[in-house]
Amino acid sequence: MIRARQQNFGRARLAAGFVVLALCGKIYAAGPTPVILISIDTLRADHLSAYGYRAVQTPNIDAFAEQGTLFAHADSQIPLTLPSHASLFTSTYPFQNRIEENAERVPAGAVTLASVLKSHGYKTAGFVASVFLEKEMGLDQGFDFYDSPFRFEAFSPLSGSMFFGGASRNPYAARDRRDGALAVRAALEWLAANRDQPVFVFLHLYDLHKPYKLASYDAEVRYTDQVLGTFRKALIAGGWWDRSLVVLLSDHGESLGEHGEASHGYFIYQSTLAVPLIFHWPAGNRQFPTREEQPVGLIDAAPTILDFLHLPAPRSFEGVSLLAPKTGHPICAESLHAHDSFGWAPLRSVREGNYKYIQAPKPELYNLRDDPGEKFNIVDKDPAEARKLQAELGKLVARYGAKQQAPAGNLTLETRALLGSLGYLAPGPGVKLEGSGADPKDRLPEFQLYERAMVYLYERRLNEAIGALRELLARDPHNTLARRDLGDCYLQQHAYAQARANFQQVLAAAPDDYVSQYELGIADEHLGSWKEAEEHLEAACKLAPEAVQCRKELDSVRQKLAGKN
Q1: Are strands 26-32 and 18-23 parallel, antiparallel or unpaired?
Q2: Facing residues of 333 across strands?
Q3: Structure pTM?
Q4: Which site in 188, 219, 272, 362 is 20 to 30 Å from 382, CA atoms measured?
Q5: Domain co-membership, 448 together with 316
Q6: What pLDDT, in 10s, does the model give residues 463-512?
Q7: Residue 243 belongs to a domain with what CATH number?
Q8: Which range marks the domain in which residue 287 is found?
Q9: Number of neighbouring beta carbons within 10 Å of residue 54
Q10: Is 128 exposed, middle or buried (0-12, 13-18, 19+ CB in 10 A)?
Q11: Which residues contact 230 (CB under 8 A, 6 or more apart)?
Q12: What are phi and psi of 455, to 5 degrees?
């Protein structure tokens, strides 16, 4: 937290949430402070020039720190899109709110930053660029207008993958994102139409997420910087910039091969947890420091916004205001991804000062000041520090985790797991967090093999995808996800008998998986087993009543059966 020597940081808050502008020696009240929150999905802090990166220059993003405060050490609480945004908006830990995968809907009635601001007279709008934040998942609560232009037919409770229809369940199918420039344009149009209102705008950009449209991650960073340069110029031209509180952050980073992880969600090293956090203050607030070195969490962003507006934070918010002169506090993070997807051990971490402890079957301890890349595990060299942080983590999980039980049945059958469309997996039905399981570090080769298969599938290199999945199944015959993807590959190759054999095995373990029921029905139809096809398509349509393609296939099979009789 902010150190006591920076007490002026807290004194600079504006009373009653009004912007104060000093013009010609006079003070003018300009109405409730507009709030603009920008989330750049998958942005590593250390790939911005403001954070010391030199391979790419990001002058437009860096400009958000002008007349602002850059937090040098901000951590995400979970390296997955929906859970991280849920933690951000509710200011609660993932193990408290139980949104720990891209498959768990934010429950109705959740108290969010948007709902709090709306209750205080703000007009609220959200503009999202990814299907992961589609309003169906509940993050739209508190928004008067929530722009999420996505439409999908069904979800898989086994993997969380979205399903758009058709015979192929390509996890990288289109219609899962929109270009950042389009999201910016929509936000600017709304701002222009509401210039006389007290506003809260949430803008989410997704261009940095795999698969990249441009040549590389850094090329996408450069493009995102250009998009935000356009946005900032428009804010200046529209009179918003000097009177608004603008907060720029990311939900999580991207590993880019560090620790053997290509993207994010599997491990909880700083490559995926360290994110930018920049507050641009309205004009007249130069008392705030330009840079803060104390570690903070995204969980602290919402309380800080409310504190700046001089609005009380809800009792449910667990983060702390970064305007208050307090000592440092522990920063927690987690990923249950390896556990939920493959049955391996969950990962949780706690950071205090320079030290970070990772709870795993083989625990890890790092001094981030001396070893920011987390290359040297010092758990055996400093067991006392490890024990201290382990105890601190246990207390936090016990205290916060006991407040709320995991939400049950908050999704319908057709939507109760979500959005594995970009390489994510989500918990299978009925998964319980029991036992330690294998250390994800030890099972990394299998995870890398699965990721390689998903890349092959995206690139439609079906033979290579089949080879990788068969190799994975040889190592782990009970890997239901790999078997279903293998069935899908065979279906795309029109090898219907092989597809059917694999889908039948999947459904023996997960009978309510929509994708497997649907695609087994397709395979049976092509094999002339129309009665079996009807049964599986009926089951699929019951799981996803809104799936138009499923109903069309079922009608087609029934017509064939009627003609046969």
Answers
A1: antiparallel
A2: 349
A3: 0.86
A4: 272
A5: no
A6: 999 999 999 999 988 888 889 999 999 999 999 999 999 999 999 988 88
A7: 3.40.720.10
A8: 4-152+181-322
A9: 6
A10: buried
A11: 181, 184
A12: -65, -45
